[in-house]
Structure prediction request, 231 residues.
Amino acid sequence: AQKITQTQPGMFVQEKEAVTLDCTYDTSDPSYGLFWYKQPSSGEMIFLIYQGSYDQQNATEGRYSLNFQKARKSANLVISASQLGDSAMYFCAMRAVGGTSYGKLTFGQGTILTVHP
Amino acid sequence: ETGVTQSPTHLIKTRGQQVTLRCSSQSGHNTVSWYQQALGQGPQFIFQYYREEENGRGNFPPRFSGLQFPNYSSELNVNALELDDSALYLCASSLSSGGVGEQFFGPGTRLTVL
Prediction:
């Protein structure tokens, strides 16, 4: 079984500053992928960034980077130069390969990010 | 390249009724997954369809059922609706089943059960 834990129900950041959203995971699968999604109030899930368990380097996508520490089973999202439009719910998710996982995504509880001007 | 679409956007039903939600996957994607997201919670996996067959199911009762069609579009059917079925239902498509790859989500259908 997989489990995702996001311990920050809400985070606040000043515009143009960087913010880190925490995510820890638990799995016994040797191969898995870690994802971050953004969900605005409209409800759609927007893919931000992906990190494979065997990737040697941390993933980056524009202002988003994933701080992957495999030994600690953490996959924190770093947003640099926050913008007002970054205010949303952020979900960390995992998708494992093999066993009975069938590739389903397991989500955390989410972190609400509020960016102040 | 068209994205994932879902219909309807909103739906109101009464307890005991049946509902069908629809999803068109992203062009070229052969796998569709459905998720239920209760208010303030993360999405919960319902089931996944790969090449028209269910090949993974979460902890949901049999009254949640689905179909995938040859064009890879999909339906989620819920029978005997209960108040707790009120949620945002998300459909996601991906290129392969079980692979470590990205899932693309639709905008969701918000179901209210009265």
